[in-house]
Amino acid sequence: MKIGVFICHCGSNIGGTVDAAKVAEAARAFPDVVFTSDTMYACSEPGQDGIIQAIKDNQLDGVVVSSCTPRMHEPTFRRTVERAGLNRFMFEMANIREHVSWIGKDKEANTNKAIELTGIAVEKLRQDQPLFAKQFDINKRVMVIGGGVAGIQAALDCADGDREVVLVERESTIGGKMAKLDKTFPTVDCSSCILGPKMVDVAQHSKIKLYAMSEVEEISGYVGNFEVKIKRKAPYVNWELCTGCGLCMEKCPSKKSKDRFNEQVGTTTAINIPFPQAIPKKAVIDPKFCIKLTKGKCGICAKVCPTKAIVFDQQEEIVSESVGAIVAATGYDLFDISKYGEYGGGRLPDVITGMQYERLLSASGPTGGHVKRPSDGKEPKTIVFVQCVGSRDKSVDRPYCSGFCCMYTAKQAILTKDHIPDSTSYVFYMDIRAPGKMYDEFTRRAMEEYGTQYVRGRVSMIYPKGDKLLVRGADTLMGTQVEVEADLVVLAAGAEASVGAPQLAEKLRISYDKYGFFMESHPKLRPVETNTAGVYLAGACQGPKDIPASVAQGSAAAAKVLALFAKDKLENDPMISFVDIKRCVGCGKCVQVCPFGAIKEVDFRGEPKAEVIETVCQGCGLCTATCPQGAIQLSHFTDNQILAEVNALCQL
Amino acid sequence: MTKYAYYPGCSGQGTSQEYDSSTRAVCRALGVNLVDIPDWSCCGSTPAHTVDHLLSSALAARNLALAEDMDAAAVITPCPSCLTNLKAAVHRMSDREFRLQVNKLLDKPVDRSTPVKSVLQVLAEDVGSDAVAEMLPNKPLAGLKLAPYYGCIMNRPPEVMQFDDHENPTAMDKLMAALGAEVLPFPLKVECCGASFGIPRKDIVAKLSGKLLEAAAGLGAHAVVTACPLCQMNLDLRQGQASAAMGRKFQLPVFYYTQLLGLALGIPQSELGLSKLCVNPRLALDAMYAAQAEKREREAKSEADKQTLKAKAA
What we know:
The complex is a heterodimer of chains A (about 650) and B (about 325). With about 650 residues, chain A is of the alpha/beta class. The two termini of chain A are about 20 Å apart. In chain B, strands 2-1-3-4 form a four-stranded parallel sheet. A four-stranded parallel sheet of chain B has the order 6-5-7-8, with helices on both faces.
């Protein structure tokens, strides 16, 4: 076997703290190595050409590149050796950047470690065998989880690309947070007027199948062939019969159900349609407040319903869908303002969240668009907005910036002046973060044209004084303490990961950060992909985002799905397990540990044996570690290869 | 009976004898066994902790070391200043380096850390307001409107004190409500009264304490109830100065919560030290008795009305 070794400087990333030339020189002494060199950027075009040239000149059988993380560049170099006529698996990579040069400053020690890692890679390569991928069919349907604006956009784009879409939404209507907004920044155009038509498009699109009031229960399979079980919750109404006429809502005597759509500002009937533009426009019974379901009496809705759609004994059901790709667009939740005891949110009725204020401003909200404060229904004249409630604050474990609160507060200040011309608005802020197109101009308009008083400083305390709220804070530009007597206080609650996001991430087998937001595959270069093939991200489930960014990401995820579906067959990864049938004793331990259900027990000449389902195996290696006989091996990571690596390390 | 190592603190010997004596009396009545830490010394409060953390912690640690031999469930103190210093010392000594430095200064090193709690925490958590309410079913403080004032350090900083909500504490509220008192939603519960600025800057204290009294009076409180000797002094002894600063005359008695607990439990007033308060507590107690009498009268009247109605019906 003839092996070539290439040591990358990665500019000063590796070259700064590793003597690459010395590593290359040392590598020459390793067994089977016939060619070594050090190169400034191995991944660059001349770098790759150099590798190809060396393979041809020296008739190499395998290549080791010592450079950066394989996660980023292993596919690149595999393609390189393939272009030179080698099998792509006759390539090994040693990570001397993340594992060496970036973590230590001692050049001599680093160089020694780089030599050792390179030596391990050479020993591994000596045991490598050419591997060949198999092809499999893909199912060209896509599932979108979450029917907010990002999910709607992704669903519509995929459907317009002529692919069947399954859209799963937890609530009884799609629209998400955007449907609750009165106006959008910085154009101050009506939110439901621009979202409404898109929602209708979803309902009317022949390629989109909508499951509202449904949650993803279980996901199995792999890219191209996912099997998803969906739990359809019981609305206690037969939605095929319900026409959304609203007669049941008019007659329902139980009017204490929490109005989730109006952010608990006010109450609604036990059977209700969340808002006039709801999609699907179907009634749902809140079982906690329905007199029939709690006490067995009433049943008026069933009597008045013209289509006899009410089903009090409806049960939830599980349905299965097969799809080839999944887009997660589960959005965000608002920070719980009651965690700030000093602001009295949740305790004082006139301290509300920005989203609640949005409902007060909205013509379809509980007050018909007239701003009335919750405690006594009076029109507030002095309104204080407090920013960064639950963002940029380590003490409540929310050190990140939510990004859109500066803008929605400016929008609400402008709208307040429009609604109540003789009002005064104060905004307590830390910094104004308005980096989008026309954003800074917009916040300036709030200050300059609408006379909103921006006070730079945090509010320390809010407490009732008579029928007013005394807001105490600091003006850090003036260096003084400030007290404002307000009629209404609006807290700009920050964003946090959606309830249940980590659980969904585990079902999808994707990573999430410590706050519950889903992790993209690469923060810059693969922003809508995950590390699980076939699963993509859109919108605020990946981190707080405003509407334009969510829509852009929804379209981006759809583009990724359509690109995936442009192929008729996918290649599987050949780094999967295989069974040595002679050694296998049929104990079944591997079947039990496989998290993907990729191993089944088969009958081989009257004896039980394990068999790997090649398209399902993900190459995790749990089975190989479990097998008492060493009968099941992971291609490219066999016991012999790993032992060769360990031996090399012990001898160096 | 659970034994607690009691740390009275220096103000209990002087400016707030009534807090100390009422605490002891109430604990005895509620079955909380207090045993004084023998030969206790200064907790390292104001003068020491402002100049030298090591000295201040060593002073506190000396007392903790003495308490170790007592086999008590916790070291407890009525005074929030003492509490802060004792707890801060424990907190700082979780750093091994610092602990070694402290132990170098002590005759007897601190080995294990006995938990440090306020008497309020023990009454709220170990005894509990429900048990108090059960003991006193006839609600002896009914009709008394109280503004509960915790002061700024009883619950803060939260990571050190680890008791109740640091912005909206409710331990004292619950105890007082258990006795039948009407606890007002006092918004300035944890605001600063000016603390020891009373010595260098009387004007600051007068204004800050004035604000507290104004808010309490504005709510219609009959009295303020506190858990801190310094707060009590600023609000009570300096009420004249606070009145002058706010341009109005306050007449608000300022009780220790233990005094009101003691009254409810029927402990003699002499033992509770009610006579040591500067603003006459009679003002509040009379209002309470009047409210109780009025309520009794109202009940008697409605009972009589019922009887008449019954008689008529018959």
